[in-house]
Design a protein that fits this description.
Elements (H helix, E strand, L loop, with lengths): L1 H20 L19 E6 L5 H17 L2 E6 L4 H13 L4 E4 L7 H11 L2 E5 L13 E3 L2 H19 L9 E7 L4 H17 L6 E5 L4 H13 L6 E6 L2 H13 L7 E7 L4 H6 L5 E6 L2 H18 L6 E3 L3 E3 L4 H4 L2 H7 L16 E6 L5 H17 L2 E6 L4 H13 L4 E4 L7 H11 L2 E5 L13 E3 L2 H19 L9 E7 L4 H17 L6 E5 L4 H13 L6 E6 L2 H13 L7 E7 L4 H6 L5 E6 L2 H18 L6 E3 L3 E3 L4 H4 L2 H7 L2
Parallel strand pairs: 1-2, 1-3, 3-4, 4-5, 5-11, 6-7, 6-8, 8-9, 9-10, 13-14, 13-15, 15-16, 16-17, 17-23, 18-19, 18-20, 20-21, 21-22
Antiparallel strand pairs: 10-12, 22-24
Helix pairs in contact: 1-3, 1-4, 2-10, 3-4, 5-6, 7-8, 8-19, 13-21, 14-15, 16-17, 18-19
C-alpha cells in the first residue's frame, strides 16, 4: 500500500511539473488573471463551491483579503482532483503569493505542496488536511474533526436517551451514519459519532454506513436501499460528515414514509438544518453542530497575509469554534448572514481560444442537473464527431453570468452558441451581441426573442404538449385512484412553477388545466414557486403543505423532475406516505431512481425527455448553419413519452437508465 501511495504521489507531482511548463487547460474553471496591481494575490480553491458552507467560506476569504490590502480570487474544483491540481498550478502561474485550498481529494496533497514549495508560494489547507511528499502536514485552518464528531455524537446520544426509544420494546432503533469514507477528516467525524452511539447502548449491527460523495442527492440515493432493506426498524438516528449528507438521508426516509417524529437527525453545519426550523416546519433535524465557513475563510485570509506580508510562519493547526444548535436556540447562536441563508430559498471559465476547427459553445442555466449534463455531453460529442471544437459552461442560474459567458464565447472566436438562458429577459441583449459578431445563436429548451420581438431559432420540446401529457397522466391516475369520490379523502394539488419562465408556464398551465378537467376544485390547486432546483422546491412546498393539514392526498407536478422531487421530499418530511401521493415528473431522470431501486415512491409516472436528443440536435443545427450555410429552423422539437415503474426500462435509452441506478 505504501508503494502504491508513493507512485500515486510521483505521478501527481509529474503532472504538476508538466503543467508548469505548458499552459493549463481547465475546461470549466477560469485561471486567475495575472495580478498587475502590486498587491499580493491570494487564491481560495474549494472542492464543491456551490454548497452554502463553501460559498460563505470563499466570500469571507475574498472580503477579508481585500480589507487587508490584498487581491483575492475564488475557484471551484468541482470534486475533481485533476482540476484541483490544475487550479493550483494556474494560481502559481498567475503570480499568487498564497493559496488556501479545500482539496477535492487528499491524495493530491504531496503534488500541490511540492508545486507551491518550488514556486515559493504559501499553501494552507482548509477543512481537509493534507501532507507533503515526506508526510509533513501542510498548515491547516478549519475545525477539529474528532471534536466535531464527538459533539454531534453526544448530542444524538442525549436526544436518544431522552426519547426512551431503546427501552421501548415496541420500537427498534437503527442508525444511518452518512460517510465520505475516502476522506480522513470525515472519518474523524463519523467514527466519533458512531462511538457515541455504541456508548449510548445501540448495538453495533444496527449502525449502517451510508457512503456518499458529500452531496445531498448522493446521500439520498445511497440511503434509500439501506432503509428499504430494514423494514423492521421503526426509529432512525441520522448523522454524517455534513448537513448535505443528513438532508439527503432525511429525504430518503421521507420517501420511505418515515415521519419526523420517528427520526433523530443531528446535522453538521446547521446551514440546511436551520431551514425547516426557520420556516416552522416539522423536521427530522433535531439538532446540528453550527460551523461557519465565514470563520474559516476569514482566518485563512489572515494566516496567508501574516505569512506573505509579515513573514509569520503559519501555525500547524488553527481551529475555529463550533456550537450545537437546535430549533429553540439557533437564532441566538448563528450569525446574521447564516440566519439569512436559513430563510433563503465564482468565477466561471471563459472559453479557450479556438483551433482551426469552428468553435461551438453550449451554455446551460443549471449544468449540474442530470438533464443538462446529458444535453451538454451530447452536444460536445456530436460537435466533435462533426469536426468542430466544443466547450460547455454553466450560467448557474445567474442572468449576468449568462450574458458574460456569451460575450466570452464571442471574444474567444465561437462561430455558434447554443444556450439555455438563466432568465429569458437576457434574450435581446445576447441576440444583439451574437448578431453584431456574426455568430449563430440558438436557444435550447427556453425560448428567447431579440429586441424586435423576433424569436431566436429554438431546439427543445413543445412546452404545451409536454404539460398536456403530464396533466393527462396525472388526471388518469387520479381517476383510477377514486380519491375524488371518497368522502374520507381531501385532494390537494401542488403545481411546482418557475413563474418567470414562459416555457415552464406552458407546462404547468396545461397540467393545471387537466386537473380542472378531472374535477379538482380550483381553490385546491396550490402554486409552489421555485427556481428550477430541488432544494428550492422543497423549501417552497413545506409551508404550503403545513398550511393545509386537512389535505389527505396530494397530486404533484411541475416544470421538471427536480421540482417534483423537492416537493416529494417536503411531503415526506411532513409525514405524507407515498401511497397518498400521485406525482408525475417531467424528465424522468429523478423519477426513475426509486423505480430502479425498487423503492416506494410518490413518483407514479413521468414524462421522459432526453437531454441527449436536444444536445445532439443543437450541435447539428449549428454545424449546418456555420459550415453549410443552412438557416436554422424556427423550431425543432424532440420527442417525449410517458413512463412509469413498469415500462421505463423498455423506453429509456441505456445512458439514461445507467443514470437511474447511480
Amino acid at each position: 500500500m505504501k508503494r502504491l501511495y508513493f507512485w500515486v504521489s510521483i505521478l501527481l507531482l509529474a503532472a504538476v511539473m508538466l503543467a508548469a511548463c505548458t499552459p493549463a487547460a481547465a475546461p470549466d474553471d477560469a485561471a486567475p488573471a495575472e495580478d498587475t496591481s502590486g498587491k499580493p494575490l491570494f487564491v481560495v480553491i474549494n472542492k464543491s463551491a456551490d454548497q452554502q458552507y463553501f460559498i460563505d467560506l470563499q466570500n469571507s476569504f475574498v472580503e477579508s483579503a481585500n480589507e487587508l490590502g490584498a487581491e483575492a480570487k475564488k475557484f471551484d474544483a468541482k470534486l475533481d482532483p485533476n482540476l484541483g491540481v490544475s487550479l493550483v498550478n494556474d494560481a502559481i502561474s498567475a503570480g499568487a503569493k498564497g493559496i488556501a485550498i479545500t482539496v477535492p481529494d487528499q491524495t493530491i496533497g504531496p503534488a500541490i505542496a511540492q508545486a507551491a514549495a518550488d514556486a515559493g508560494v504559501v499553501l494552507i489547507a482548509t477543512d481537509d488536511s493534507i501532507v507533503d511528499a515526506a508526510g509533513n502536514p501542510i498548515p491547516f485552518v478549519g475545525f477539529d474533526g474528532k471534536d466535531m464528531g464527538k459533539k454531534v455524537g453526544e448530542a444524538a446520544a442525549n436526544l436518544l436517551n431522552e426519547s426512551g426509544w431503546l427501552s421501548d420494546s415496541g420500537k427498534k432503533v437503527g442508525v444511518l451514519s452518512v460517510e465520505v469514507q475516502t476522506l480522513s477528516v470525515c472519518n474523524d467525524r463519523t467514527d466519533n459519532e458512531k462511538a457515541a452511539m455504541l456508548a449510548a447502548g445501540v448495538a453495533e449491527d444496527q449502525i449502517f454506513a451510508v457512503p456518499y460523495t458529500g452531496e445531498a442527492l448522493s446521500a439520498q440515493d445511497a440511503a434509500g436501499p439501506i432503509i428499504t432493506a430494514h423494514p423492521d426498524v421503526t426509529n432512525w438516528i441520522v448523522f454524517g460528515c455534513n448537513d448535505e449528507g443528513v438532508l439527503g438521508t432525511l429525504n430518503a426516509l421521507g420517501t420511505a414514509g418515515v415521519v419526523p417524529d420517528d427520526i433523530i437527525a443531528v446535522g453538521l453545519g446547521a446551514y440546511e438544518a436551520c431551514r425547516p426550523w426557520a420556516a416552522g416546519q416539522p423536521s427530522g433535524f433535531k439538532a446540528a453542530l453550527f460551523i461557519s465557513g465565514m470563520d474559516v475563510g476569514n482566518t485563512a485570509a489572515n494566516v496567508l497575509y501574516e505569512a506573505v506580508v509579515n513573514g509569520v510562519t503559519p501555525p500547524e493547526k488553527t481551529y475555529a469554534p463550533t456550537s450545537i444548535v437546535d430549533a429553540s436556540n439557533f437564532q441566538s447562536v448563528m450569525d446574521p448572514i447564516s440566519l439569512a441563508n436559513c430563510s433563503a430559498g465564482g468565477e466561471v471559465a471563459a472559453p479557450a481560444e479556438p483551433a482551426e476547427k469552428p468553435l461551438f459553445v453550449v451554455i446551460n442555466k443549471s449544468a449540474d442537473q442530470q438533464y443538462f449534463i446529458d444535453l451538454q455531453n451530447s452536444f460536445v460529442e456530436s460537435a466533435n464527431e462533426l469536426g468542430a471544437e466544443a466547450k460547455k459552461f454553466d450560467a448557474k442560474l445567474d442572468p449576468n453570468l449568462g450574458v458574460s459567458l456569451v460575450n466570452d464565447a464571442i471574444s474567444a472566436g465561437a462561430k455558434g452558441i447554443a444556450i439555455t438562458v438563466p432568465d429569458q429577459t437576457i434574450g435581446p441583449a445576447i441576440a444583439q451581441a451574437a448578431a453584431d459578431a456574426g455568430v449563430v445563436l440558438i436557444a435550447t429548451d427556453d425560448s428567447i426573442v431579440d429586441a424586435a420581438g423576433n424569436p431566436i431559432p429554438f431546439v427543445g420540446f413543445d412546452g404545451k404538449d409536454m404539460g398536456k401529457k403530464v396533466g393527462e397522466a396525472a388526471a388518469n391516475l387520479l381517476n383510477e385512484s377514486g380519491w375524488l369520490s371518497d368522502s374520507g379523502k381531501k385532494v390537494g394539488v401542488l403545481s411546482v412553477e418557475v413563474q418567470t419562465l414562459s416555457v415552464c408556464n406552458d407546462r404547468t398551465d396545461n397540467e393545471k388545466a387537466a386537473m380542472l378537467a378531472a374535477g379538482v376544485a380550483e381553490d385546491q390547486i396550490f402554486a409552489v414557486p421555485y427556481t428550477g432546483e430541488a432544494l428550492s422546491a422543497q423549501d417552497a412546498a413545506g409551508p404550503i403543505i403545513t398550511a393545509h393539514p386537512d389535505v389527505t392526498n396530494w397530486i404533484v407536478f411541475g416544470c421538471n423532475d427536480e421540482g417534483v422531487l423537492g416537493t416529494l421530499n417536503a411531503l415526506g418530511t411532513a409525514g405524507v406516505v407515498p401511497d397518498d401521493i400521485i406525482a408525475v415528473g417531467l424528465g424522468a431522470y429523478e423519477a426513475c431512481r426509486p423505480w430502479a431501486a425498487g423503492q416506494p415512491s410518490g413518483f407514479k409516472a413521468a414524462l421522459f425527455i432526453s437531454g441527449m436528443d436536444v444536445g445532439n440536435t443543437a450541435a447539428n443545427v449549428l454545424y449546418e448553419a456555420v459550415v453549410n450555410g443552412v438557416t436554422p429552423p424556427e423550431k425543432t422539437y424532440a420527442p417525449t413519452s410517458i413512463v412509469d415503474a413498469n415500462n421505463f426500462q423498455d423506453i429509456m435509452d441505456s445512458i439514461s437508465l445507467a443514470n437511474c441506478s447511480q
